[in-house]
Amino acid sequence: MKRYINTALLYAILAMVGGVFYREFTKFFGFTGKTTLSFVHTHYFMLGMVFFILMLLLEKHFLFTNPKSKKWTVLYHVGLNLTVVMFIVRGIAQVLQLPLSNGMDAAISGIAGIGHIFLGVSMVLLLLQVKRAVIEATVTEK
Hints:
The chain contains four helices and no strands. The chain is an all-alpha fold. It has one domain. It starts with a helix and ends with a helix.
């Protein structure tokens, strides 16, 4: 459980750093348009902090964590951070108004998409693990 609360705290800090970076970077360059930098803050808060607080609550109630948990956890962290890094890369390019070739634009989108796929797969693995723990808890209650 300690791992989940520490991870939630880390992602809360990263969310705040992402929000400050978005505000200050766009202000410094006088940028007033839309940029994917704005998604860094919300992704880290919701998919980082809130998600791991929910994991803490689920763990407290169902004790679902086991040695296999490392698989979905690592995949989740890689997916979330890969996605956010691509938001930052695209956002900086947008603020600096850097022209991106079609290949570079597609590469950024593709890598962010891979991050989203990792997130989705890891969530399914997690849900299967929690489901097993819920079924086990239900059987032991009877």
